Amino acid sequence: MRIWALTKRLMKQVIRDRRSVAMLFLAPLFVLWLLSIVLTTSTTQSDLDAVDLPGVLVEQLKQTDASVTEVSLADAEMRLQNGESDGYLTLEEGHVRVVLEGSDPAVNGAVQQAVQEAMKGLADGKSTGAGASGVTNVPGTPSTSGAGVPMGMEVEFLHGGKSLTKLDYLAPVLIGFFIFFFVFLISGVSFLRERTGGTLERVLATPIKRYEIVLGYFFGFGVFAVLQTALVQWFALNVLGVQSVGSFGSVLVINILLATVALSLGTLLSAYARNEFQMVQFIPLVVVPQIFMSGLFDLRNMPDWLMTLSQALPLTHAAEALRGVMIRGEGLSDIQVALWVLAGYCLLFLTLNILALRRYRKV
Questions:
Q1: What angle do CA 83, 160, 42 make, to 5 degrees?
Q2: pTM of structure
């Protein structure tokens, strides 16, 4: 009987907390729905540029999963440099020369597989006398094998290289995610305890202004966020051996900016939580979508609305900036747009945090 009484009390307590009930049942459905979209539309389809290739080879390439565009060499080099294609193909001395963007091992493999399939299909067509499109010889084709089929493939990399592993590709996103997650959680719970413990209420009773309170807590927690960020980054690069061709300082600048965004967001959302349990409930809504849409999965074939949402998330900009520095060797000037976006998010969340403190003090 006493067990039932205790059970009944706890059930009533949970039911009265409407937000907890909603999160308890809706959050798993939201995360599963988001995961299903990402996993069912995530494919490694490569975008290739063909430069003066024989028509039969282009036709064979179009029969693979690759998306093929015929452009000039100058356009192909520019598109590759801007990240608009995964690589371009030319025919030199009887070999297909493949120049890959190189920062994603999965895409690199997809490109090489598509080229190999096209060459095999062309060779099979020649051996049967059919050809890819009924053409058995291509006038003007550079010296190829006797049947007009390229004799092999030579691969070059603009970034990365053969030594680039999946961990090297995913590490920038994972480093950014763990920094964002732990700073968000620790700052949110810590600021919440300041309020539930009565410390914030006593501070609000003093003449100190609201923006001074927010900035004071921001810099106070920020010191530890910076130390944690530096430690995580040092461990990943020096202990785990994650490849980084950019400078340690540039990577640190990005991670510290991301940590300040997580810090300001965590303290902001903690103003709307009554306890630690409610603070944790924000994770499926704020943190989980970012890990799905920040670059761990190939988003190029996602619906437009999901792509737009992805670009609105701070972790997406941080992950792209980290990849730019760590894999492509870019400097801070090359990723300044992402840095300004992160700084803008930080200022926005700090401003909203100052306004949120009106709930506790009007002045």
A1: 55
A2: 0.77
